[in-house]
Design goal:
homotetramer, alpha/beta, seven-stranded parallel β-sheet, two-stranded antiparallel ribbon, 5 helices, globular
């Protein structure tokens, strides 16, 4: 990886994802690596595994921030993995470590990462992910995209790297 | 407080709430205390302050789990306050400490608590709070209620106290 | 509990303590309650159980900050218990929640709480606990006492309540 | 970095270290990299900076697990840095992420990492670091060494990589 101060981009999604979601995640991981950014994820399977796989294939650096106490649950494509032992509280660390967040599909864990990202003021980009509303009115806090290319471009454009 | 093993109910909402939300929260806090349950909240202002105030007025026990490193930010109505120094990662602890979660209105922090509650399999009751959807289809994971009485009743009925 | 802003005192020690340590802990818990202070501990057995028992007997308020995900492991004498799901990282929270720390005997977990207390600038009082040295020279950062009465007096005198 | 499953070794020490400690840390970092292991540290200055510098010079991979909310405080030699926002509670994560811990000199933060490492059952190697005793009797839980070479050899020999 070229030294300097690369942006960090989190990729969030379900540990049991659809084939389509995994294909998007792999492409997102590849594009993050090609842009010279660092990939952050929750370190497990599904979208996290696919994103790390795409990143690895393009020679990029990826970090898995795991909920459990050991590295045994880490997917095999990560450059490094950090077993936090914090359980779901680790979702806050995934988001905190990132300059921008890309959510792909996802279940309640992903929703918590979207919410924490927005709470922390991080750009959150969504690819077929959760839709939010209050009192029947949509809340458009997530940058909606429809392709992996748009997702990575939007994440990197929105990122002011804090270094 | 009567000994035994009371349920713990988290009340989540914005630190800068509307008058209506604060009125609901105060009533929810009072009803939690009257039911002999323990109130858990994030310890700050707005909905958290109002819920603790209602709990205090009814002679109940409340716990504030604070994001910062000191008790100085705690609202004055709490029985005890725990400064975690974890920042927004403390939202996971608010939810984990509870047997059921009541969300009143709320912003992105509340959304993260709803999501973490659902992820952890806790009953989540919503009073004029976030609405969730995927692909245009509502996701009805939150028990919707319209009054404080219904909120507390739904939370307590759904609770299997783990003790 | 009388309102106002009581100091919080952590009592740290082994989950499998000697009879002597448990007797000291129970007396420390009683004295903390009689002083109107709040007892904080790790919520489990041994010294933690005995301290909470003494606190309860004197009508005091105690908080157990648990490492696991449920309240099931909490000792039965606590006023409230908080299951953090953070594992040993919860030791930092026990210390952070307190204005002063009393260590009674103890193993490596207690040593970590002593160290974190000193790192955070909290007064740390030791009753037959760890002795520290560097290069053969004792490091006298712990206030050494020999009785529960001295321990609680030293902890409360050293405390500047941050409220 | 050669793929496979390298051991992770934490290097702990003061953020304001002596020249001698920094020289040891740099050599320890270099030897960890040459052994194909991953260096974990707290990400700040002093011993942490020197260890990461040595690791970088030998082409190794290093991870900084930071206490604050941003990467700005990270030393410039790290491969990746993770701002946890957990304050001193991050010390538990530094130790948890490692298969073995090397302590070089150090103050109370380092002592907490030694204690947490021992609590978690990790091998802890000490180079001119804290000495522990109870009741006047030394507690020999730390593997004592006198050179960086011995430190890294002892850490790697004691490591059963959990992967």
């Amino acid at each position: 990886m070229a030294k300097g101060k690369p942006p960090y981009v989190a990729v969030c999604g379900s540990g049991e994802a659809t084939e389509q979601e995994e294909a998007w995640a792999e492409e997102v991981g590849r594009l993050i690596a090609e842009a010279g950014a660092v990939l952050v994820c929750g370190g497990l399977g599904g979208v996290m595994d696919a994103a790390a796989k795409g990143c690895e294939a393009a020679g990029g650096v990826s970090i898995g921030i795991l909920p459990g106490e050991g590295r045994g649950a880490a997917n095999p494509h990560l450059t490094v993995s950090i077993p936090t032992g914090l359980g779901e509280a680790r979702n806050a660390l995934v988001v905190r470590a990132a300059d921008a967040v890309i959510a792909i599909g996802g279940e309640f864990g992903t929703l918590s990462e979207i919410a924490l990202g927005l709470k922390l003021g991080k750009p959150v980009v969504g690819l077929h992910t959760w839709e939010l509303a209050k009192g029947g009115t949509p809340v458009d806090a997530i940058v909606r995209v429809t392709t992996p290319e748009e997702a990575v471009r939007a994440a990197l454009e929105a990122t002011t790297v804090e270094n």
